[in-house]
Amino acid sequence: MQEPEEKKIALELLETEQAYVNRLHLLDQVFYTELMKEAKTGKTVPEEVVKMIFSNISSIYQFHAEFFLPELRKRMEDWDCNPRIGDVIQKLAPFLKMYGEYVKNFDKAVELITAWSEKSPPFQELIADIQKRKVCANLTLQHHMLEPVQRIPRYELLLKDYVRKLPPRSPDRGDAEKALEMIFMVAKHSNAAIAEMERLQNLWVVYQRLGLEDDIVDPSNELIKEGPIQKISTRNNSTSEKYLFLFNNMLLYCVPKVIQVGAEFQVHLRMDVEGMKVRELKDTEFPHTFLVSAKQRTLELQARSEEEMDAWIK
């Protein structure tokens, strides 16, 4: 007799889980342990750096090796009298939130490996030595580290497939559907962690361009729009080039620096968004002009086109 489709998928889940636990073992028990030992004894690399590279990989490894894999294995052995995995995956789902931290840290970890490989030849040698071992299958540390990042989407795909192949009357239907929903939420959580990390990185780049002024650097700010603008001087009927950064709570009115050492812009004025009024001006001499008034002061600004003006006003 041919195996039912849903059992094949459940078996694939078990096989990939076994391979995944081997990969986690390599990361935690081989790379992390050996680099940590070296950091404690030699002067290759600070312990802190090793910890930052591997984030919370030990917790992830323990959870899969000591809990999820054994539960899954037991379930597949009893499949003929109890054909279900939905409930086991429901137990797994909440723990997958641990991945948020690992995923968020991933880019930083890869940067640290590169930077310290250049700084410390013994560090680089030890990694190269481990990578030569058979267990590494000719793949780099960075490649192995990517595996946990890809694991949750993999669960989602396998489970989707499993639910699709389940017979309508299967005793596992209710549990499997609930498990899929939970995994979906965790995947979203993990993606949100990546998006938040990217937002903070972009924000940091903007702060550097502004010269890292203390009262401006705030991780909760959100950059909404930035770009060049002409400032109209009503006194002598002329315009001068300025640059705007619009955040959720403030508008920074800046001047591009001529000599760009360090910061790219000098902040001339900081205006509160709260209570700010913005309106279009019908000026025949200066088209695409709009007025921004805040409690600090009022600016008459000219955009390069109608679309640009509309985008700023919006």
From TrEMBL:
One of its GO terms (biological process) is cytoskeleton organization. One of its GO terms (cellular component) is cytoskeleton. PROSITE patterns: DH_2, PH_DOMAIN. Residues 5-193 form the DH domain. Pfam families: RhoGEF, SOS1_NGEF_PH. It comes from the Eukaryota. Residues 222-314 form the PH domain. This is FGD2 protein. It comes from Aegithalos caudatus (Long-tailed tit).
